[in-house]
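Researcher: Quick sanity check before group meeting.
Model: Go ahead. Protein one:
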Amino acid sequence: MKLLVQLQKFGIFFIRVIPLKLADKIAAGIGILCCYLLKTKRTYIQNNLMHIFADENISVEQCNHYVKNTFINFARVMVDFFRLGSISKKDIISSVKPFGVIEHTTQGLSFKRGVVLITLHLGNWDYAGSYLAALGVPMSALVEETESEMFDLYTKHRERTGMQTFSVVRAGYAFLHTIKNNRVLAVLADRDIMKNGITVDFYSGKRNIPKGLAEIVIKRKLPVLFAYMVLNPNKGLHRYLGVIEPPIVFNGTTDEFNRLMVTKFQYYIRSYPDQWLVFHPEWVE
């Protein structure tokens, strides 16, 4: 782990001294190399794609294209994560083309009882949180707890623009803090990090999602924002596309909420299949 931390620290330094276009080219090369060398990770991505496109006969060529692009996109996302330690709030804001970001976040906060922003491991979720904080949104996020040195390094990057982070083991406190202070709490809900989740239908298979999220949203009547941020596939003026849907206060059952969440996740992923950056064997067979 210490070697990995040192490599990431070197990456952070290296990104600061080279132009972004050159960094992207290097990232693409590293992504392609990892695609060919990391056979197990490649198999996980292929398995994801087989579930995503189970209702149509995706060709081997198309599947391989998505697999390669997934590795490249992950490398590009890491470039931007490393850059969070040195670029200005203005540069972060100008790099994103927003869709409903300000108006829907403002509507959610107008309820005055906190907002849960539900997103997934699609595109660049860390950049999204930093972007919202840079805009002045009172932003918090639940994050995965890793080895202490790595966690400290990531926390420094994530909180640089004003976002506050809580480890997933402190989720209860994070929700109370969000409600009391009328903040936005970002939750990544497509993976069962704590390994105690519930199993749901997901495309042609089954996956586990976090336990308890639906219960607290419904019980506390918390406004929910479904959102995501992806690399702009058109590579235009804006590097990212940021989407936040209108807030909802859900009145149904927990099962109904989970089905709604999964339906939205499936739509997002299907729209950007090579930006679902999940390199783990998490399908329930």
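Researcher: Fine. The other one?
Model: Protein two, sequence then structure:
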Amino acid sequence: MIASLLLTVIAAQAHATNLLEIYDRAAQNDPAIRQADATRLATREARPQAWAQLLPNISANANWSSVACGANSFQCPTPGIPAANLTGTDRAEPSTARGGSYGISAVESINLPLMLRNLKRTDYVLAQADLTYHAAEQDLAVRVAKAYFGVLSAQDVLNSAQGSLAAFNKQLEQQEKRFEVGLSANTDVQEARAARDSASAIVISSKRALASAQEQLRIIAGSIVDNLAAPIDDMPLIVPDPQSEEEWVKQSLDGNLNLAAARVALDAATYDLGTVKTYRYPSLTLGANYDNRKIFSDFDTQKGLNSWAGTIISVGISVPIFSGGMVSSQIRQDVYLQRAARENVELVTRQTDSGARDAYLGMQSAIALVQANKQALESAQLALQATEAGFDVGTRTTIDVLNSRKALLSAEVQYEQSRYDYISQLIVLKQVNGTLSRGDLELINSWLVK
């Protein structure tokens, strides 16, 4: 039983969180994507608000009042004398008048062309909101990948620095023993100590860099993750298909989500130019009102005698003649907004074109760099073995061994970094192309150590 519990604890500690798990956490906890989702939901309310303009406004009202009149007031009715016949010599007796009313009204102001165009415009608004949200989803995937592999890269640098420190400590011990028996000079000891001290400083700075990278990942994922799955040794290198820069540019200009959203915004701005002209159209106003009133007085012989109820139906038309130049100003404003939207499309088009070319060339370069760094790592390993063998027979010095170790550790870090850059570049290329999806993350996730 105890052995089983120990195995469970060890397995839990050994589990490495993978890229897909971090992405799922980020989808729930990242403030940027949650803000984008809330903005999209808020924008969707434009459709029911547009429909509301086609429906009447209905309201109900009710009130109750009580008025007490003094003995010297001329404003309260005198018994037996109609209020219209009161003279300055008439005095009202102390009395109280109470009354109340209730009613319901419905009003509808109809400018049908304007209402229908406002309803149609929500198609552009909702389309742009969806495109913007999906672009935010792709941006989240890119940010997660960069933060994820940023932590792995920082961890590799720290591991390399710690390995270097351990090797230099060992080298220093060897040199001190050789110096004690007279097999090496004090210069070799000091050089080994200087290398050890330098490696110790690099370890300190590497720990700080790792903490910063972990904090960046925590901001996105919502929690700190210490153990991340790294790429397997035989990670495949996928060549972009098609292998044509111009074809990738063409696909990106057709599929990039930010560019698509900019084009929808231009369509909406063009549509608004036709809408603002409908402000000059006449509006038809329809109204219906029901009102019920009752007034009670101390002098009424029949309570509630002063009361009435009625229904009023009204139809009117309003023709705008002059609005202080408001409509003309709005037309000019929409012309400028259309011009701004058109220039924004041109800007995003150029950015997409440049981004697609840069991502494609970066992908090609990343593949070549991984292959070159792999060869450099193998060469550095062989070089260190040869240097250590030469040191044992006296043909190489301590400095040669230290330099070979530094070269090997540097080659290891550069090789791993190039693999992370390759994965990040693949994600960026998909993002610019507009095809980045969860399936791409699942593919990359399959390249990580289980």
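Researcher: One line on it for the slide.
Model: The longest helix spans residues 112-180.
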